[in-house]
Specification:
Mean pLDDT: 97
Low-confidence stretches: none
Strand order of the largest sheet: 5-4-6-7-1-8-13-12-11
Order of helices and strands: EEHHEHEHEHEEEEEHEHHHEEHEHEEE
Number of helices: 11
Distance between the termini: 41 Å
Number of domains: 2
CATH topology of the largest domain: Peroxisomal Thiolase, Chain A, domain 1
Bound molecules: acetoacetyl-coenzyme A
Strand content: 25-35%
Length: 386
């Protein structure tokens, strides 16, 4: 890639409710330290009936459009594992809610937690060919597992929107990329299921194997030595997983990699839980918002999507990135969530699965958010601005 291309802006959104994992642990008779320390998780965002990947994705993307306008946006990539239709891209709903021009192509990408990275790379290649265009990438997911399952504490919800442009203000994408794909049934969601099927232990091993495969391919394709990487963001289904990944990379390369090189990236994911394909970019947002010393630094990014596709790539942070980040805005969003107790969380979880099977149903606005899922009319999903 000859032109400087990368992330010009990055904004997030999450669901309107929050559950303290200490409450979940106590109700299940589990030591809360298992979640806090063992998984590295404190809270999870819980969507209401009027929220889904479209409403969260539109809320994140709206912040980008408010700051930069829509001129030159000719592509919207919507990356998700928890899409709302088997045919129509969730991004088409977002396109209308944001009033984007008709002259903008919209496509949904799916490969578990990996697809936002595919979208980002495709966006960068498009902009490299046509530097006057800008691409809006929206990553949005709701992580739902069965109630009372081992995976329950690793649920969550959130969206990240990124504007990919030439001469970016936040971070430039480097061209070296490492990839590793392997057919493995560690995590998947059959078409008739609202919750994912997961083999937790297999998934952890598959993630770590994918990381090493992607790292070796990164090095074989011009990637820098690990000692030349200043910070790391690893995919965070739960933040302890990123700690495991970091240790594994240190073992594999034989280079000591201190925990301080990745610790700042866990700040948001500890509080929103897993947001599948948005999770890696929440990690990047947390790093950018909490580390003042990133100008000119290289950030290694590891993306893992079960099933599985892994990718390692790197970003170079721009000099005045601090004037473009949105830490206060994100803190306000997290603080504005309504706390729920375990019975209320369980009721919301059950209601979400039931809603999907309805032919006609009206859903009243429940949370204070800019966009709402308003129900289903003749099986077609309805969305409104607040
Ligand atoms: N105090 C402190 N730590 C404790 C503890 C206590 N009282 N009790 C247990 N722990 C620790 C354990 O030692 C363990 O730590 P280590 O892994 O470092 O040894 C940790 O807490 C978890 O304990 P268990 O392994 O016993 O947990 P579990 O089997 O009940 O479930 C899980 C954990 C497998 C991750 C499960 O939550 C799960 O299946 N989650 C969904 C799958 C997942 O997130 N996989 C990650 C890789 S796949 C991926 O990345 C894609 C994606 O987004 C889904």
């Amino acid at each position: 890639m000859s032109a400087r291309v990368g992330i010009h802006d990055l904004a997030v959104a999450t669901a309107g409710h929050v559950l303290e994992l200490d409450l979940l642990a106590e109700s299940a008779g589990i030591d809360p330290a298992k979640y806090r320390v063992g998984l590295g998780q404190e809270q999870m965002s819980v969507p209401g009936p009027d929220e889904d990947v479209v409403t969260m994705g539109a809320a994140a993307a709206q912040r980008i459009i408010e700051r930069h306008g829509a001129d030159g946006i000719r592509t919207l990539f919507f990356a998700t594992e928890s899409g709302v239709d088997q045919s129509k891209s969730a991004g088409v709903f977002v396109h209308r809610l944001l009033g984007l021009p008709a002259t903008c192509r919209v496509v949904e990408l799916k490969q578990a937690c990996y697809s936002a990275t595919a979208a980002l790379q495709a966006a960068a290649d498009m902009v490299a060919r046509r530097p006057d265009e800008r691409v809006l990438v929206v990553a949005s997911d709701i992580a739902r597992y069965d109630l009372d399952s081992a995976a329950e504490a690793t649920q969550g919800a959130g969206a990240v929107a990124m504007l990919v442009t030439a001469d970016p203000a936040i971070a430039e994408l480097e061209s070296a990329i490492g990839i590793s794909t392997a057919d493995v049934d560690d995590f998947f969601r059959p078409n008739d299921s609202a919750t994912a099927v997961v083999d937790g232990k297999l998934s952890i091993g598959a993630y770590l194997d994918g990381m090493i495969g992607a790292w070796d391919d990164y090095r074989a394709h011009g990637g820098v030595d690990v000692s030349e990487i200043d910070r790391f963001c690893h995919h965070q289904p739960f933040t302890k997983m990123a700690v495991k990944a970091h240790r594994r990379l240190a073992d594999h390369t034989g280079v000591p990699l201190g925990a301080e090189l990745m610790a700042a990236s866990t700040g948001y994911n500890r509080r929103i839980g897993n947001s599948y394909t948005a999770s890696l970019y929440f990690a990047l947002a947390a790093l950018l918002d909490s580390d003042d010393d990133l100008a000119g630094r290289r950030v290694g990014m590891f993306s893992y999507g079960s099933g599985s596709v892994s990718e390692f790539f790197a970003l170079r942070v721009c000099d005045d990135y601090r004037t473009h980040t949105r830490g206060e805005e994100t803190e306000a969003l997290l603080a504005a969530r309504t706390p729920v107790d375990v019975p209320r969380y369980r009721a919301l979880h059950t209601a979400a699965a039931e809603l999907n099977s309805r032919v006609d149903v009206a859903v009243e606005p429940g949370v204070d958010a800019p966009f709402h899922f308003a129900g289903i009319a003749g099986r077609a999903r309805q969305y409104r601005r607040a």
